[in-house]
Structure formats: C-alpha cells, structure tokens
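Backbone geometry:
***
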Amino acid sequence: MAIKRGENLNVSPGAGDKVLEGDRLVVIGKNESLESLKDYDDKKQ
C-alpha cells in the first residue's frame, strides 16, 4: 500500500501514518481482495 498526498508518495507508510481527506491510496492485490475495500468504503458513506 502507498499513500499519495499531493505530489508526495509514501510507498511504505508506517502504523502511525494517517490517511487524510484528499489522500489517494495505492493498493495492489487480487481483484477479489480489493473488492472488500470498495465494500468498506460503500458502507462508510
């Protein structure tokens, strides 16, 4: 996972790094696994 914030890209975020509004997450994995992230986001809204 990586966090893109503006022009900065944190390719190895630590446990203390926060995801802020406007950040973009870069994730790699099987489509089936990534679908669970979409489901989580849908429930949050």
